[in-house]
Amino acid sequence: MAEKAKLYYFDGRGLMESIRWLLTVAGVEFEEVFLKTREQYEQLLKDGALMFQQVPLVEIDGMKLIQTKAILNYIAAKYNLYGKDLKERVMIDMYVEGIRDLMDLIAKHPFLPPGEKDSNTNLIQTKAVDRYFPVYEKALDQSGGGYLVGSQLSKADVQVFEVVLMVEEKFPSILSNFPQLQAFQTRMRSVPAIQKFLQPGSQRKPQPDDNYVKTVREVLRF
Fold first, then answer.
1. Where would a tag sit more exposed on the chain, N or C end, judged by fewer CB atoms within 10 A?
2. Does the predicted TM-score (pTM) go above 0.90?
3. Residues 132, 135: Cα–Cα separation, whole Å
4. Contact 15, 9 (CB under 8 A)
């Protein structure tokens, strides 16, 4: 049996959540070490585990990997979630980079001052409806196969699905004018690994709360 991956991060979504999603879809079991104190973080620095003094950190295949994009690319390439050729791969990368922009808006939201949260919420909605969702709606309409790129599941599908769910948490009816994305979401929910990950008690993390924000601020001192 393959050794489990080991994830070092906070007990919350943040930058690690996309990695959790992709490992789950790839069928890779993982355990987690939650950073709760500044001392834990400093020990990782002392051990030389954090190349750029940043988390997420993932131990997998005898390596200590940092940088979210690099980790996701490694998982996708190893587990056949990165297209069949270079042309498909670059399309996958473009779709992922686009949705990352939207994800960053969502990820920073809990850390904003109260006076800036309403405007950021409006920005998330506007960008989702006007800039990002139309791109994925068109891609799904043109692909004809149910996937964003090519004829098989890729990391683009997984990450777009993840972000659609997060946006829906804030705006439950946001897909009302995007029938292709609605159908895509239904198909993704039927993937057995995803079905399991969406169930209560899985390693999927809930929306960030005040305790999560407090812990991140204390550990990283910002």
1. N
2. yes
3. 5
4. yes
**Which candidate, 170, 162, 203, 196, places its Cα nearest to that of 12?**
203
Residue whose entry in the numeric block shows the structure tokens 């439950």: 172
Side chain identity at 218, as an amino acid letter?
E
> Rounded distance, CA 79 to CA 191, Å?
16
Say what the pLDDT of residue 2 is.
61
Label residues 163-189 b or e (16+ Cβ within 10 Å = b): bbebbeeeeeebbeebebbeebbebbe
Give me the mean pLDDT over the 29-56 stretch: 94
Structure tokens at 92: 């996958």
Query: What local confidence, expressed as pLDDT, does residue 63 receive?
Result: 95
How far is the CA of 214 from the CAs of 29, 152, 205, in angstroms?
29, 40, 16
136: exposed, middle or buried (C-beta count within 10 Å: 0-12, 13-18, 19+)?
A: buried
